[in-house]
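Example for tutorial group B:
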């Protein structure tokens, strides 16, 4: 084993003869003996680390070898104390394995000085242990962040928006990467930009809770997007304002142009596209494939005018397979029998499931008794396609 490591370390892939090995390890070559001592020590440490990662942390041999490149033990006292700490704070064996695999450096932490204060902080905010464990399993390097310089200030920045520890942690659960960044340098300035432009606090809280990613951008770029949204005629007091900012931040100028070109294929002018965007900003966040698929179904299958969709852009926001096609099968029957007009299709697609069934299926059981079976079968087929 020593000879093999020595060869690998000192000579890479070059073949070494026994005589040359003997010469290298000769007492007359003190530097080689120092190298051998170093290699032997390193090999022993690595062997101990890999073995511990497999037997105590539940990692596969392959994962253990990979992880051992980032952490190495001379004794097991510290990693043992970390594992005991995690176990005592609600982590299962599987979760501990996940944490170690993602962030092996945690095994070098001091449980009392480094880990415990962070757990106590979240406990003081009313965070339940199982919920905290889920967040830390998702991004265990949060445990490496400074409590005083990052975690507490970040929590306070978010809490200043939500005015509630519970809502603050709910946002952290949804996007736990929030705690991996210095919110003072990006998120906080962007929140103030929205406030300075008259965006109501509830709208800022709602968009931050559901789309925190949009705040992770350079403040000057964020301000540019806000100004562009204002130029497009959005009212800062309306919720569509922040969803429009999110839409702009979600794509490059080139991607925006490509979306414009897709809608133009269906006869929409730039003015019509802008009107649709003002009404329902999500139309510009849809993929090109989805736009084409939805428009093709509405226009070529249901026979609706393209302008009908541009005036009701929210019809593009639903799933084609899970909602539009199943309900469209009902719409086709009802329209063919003259039971509903095209103008009724907005309610047909936008209604909640219970209202849809009452208004468009059960109501016409005598005139079209096959509707419920048709809808159910189409819906089941769509769900099956999703599974596949």
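The residue assignment follows.
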């Amino acid at each position: 084993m020593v000879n093999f490591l020595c060869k690998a370390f000192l000579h890479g892939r070059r073949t070494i003869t026994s005589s040359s090995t003997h010469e290298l390890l000769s007492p007359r070559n003190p530097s080689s003996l120092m190298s051998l001592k170093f290699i032997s020590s390193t090999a022993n440490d690595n062997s101990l680390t890999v073995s511990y990662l497999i037997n105590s942390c539940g990692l596969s041999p392959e994962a253990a070898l990979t992880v051992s490149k980032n952490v190495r033990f001379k004794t097991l006292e510290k990693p043992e104390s970390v594992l005991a700490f995690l176990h005592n704070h609600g982590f299962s064996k599987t979760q501990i394995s996940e944490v170690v695999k993602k962030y092996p450096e945690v095994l070098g932490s001091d449980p009392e000085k480094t880990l415990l204060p962070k757990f106590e902080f979240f406990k003081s905010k009313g965070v339940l242990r199982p919920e905290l464990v889920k967040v830390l399993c998702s991004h265990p390097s949060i445990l490496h962040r400074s409590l005083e310089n990052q975690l507490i200030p970040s929590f306070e920045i978010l809490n200043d928006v939500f005015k509630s520890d519970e809502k603050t942690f709910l946002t952290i659960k949804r996007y736990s990467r929030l705690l991996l960044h210095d919110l003072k340098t990006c998120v906080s300035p962007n929140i103030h930009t929205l406030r300075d432009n008259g965006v109501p606090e509830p709208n800022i809280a709602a968009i931050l809770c559901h789309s925190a990613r949009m705040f992770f951008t350079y403040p000057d770029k964020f301000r540019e997007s806000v100004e562009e949204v204002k130029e497009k005629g959005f009212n800062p007091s309306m919720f569509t304002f922040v969803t429009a900012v999110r839409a702009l931040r979600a794509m490059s100028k080139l991607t925006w142009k490509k979306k414009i070109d897709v809608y133009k294929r269906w006869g929409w002018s730039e003015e019509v596209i802008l009107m649709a965007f003002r009404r329902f900003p999500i139309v510009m966040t849809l993929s090109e494939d989805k736009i084409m698929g939805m428009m093709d179904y509405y226009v070529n299958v249901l026979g609706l005018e393209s302008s009908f969709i541009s005036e009701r852009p929210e019809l593009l926001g639903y799933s084609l397979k899970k909602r539009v096609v199943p309900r469209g099968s009902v719409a086709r029957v009802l329209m063919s029998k003259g039971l509903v007009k095209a103008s009724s299709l907005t309610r047909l697609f936008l209604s909640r499931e219970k209202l849809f069934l009452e208004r468009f299926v059960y109501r016409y059981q005598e005139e079209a008794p096959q509707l419920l079976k048709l809808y159910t079968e189409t819906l089941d087929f769509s769900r099956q396609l999703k599974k596949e």
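Residues 1-44 have pLDDT under 50 and may be disordered. Compare this with the pattern of hydrophobic and polar residues in the output above.
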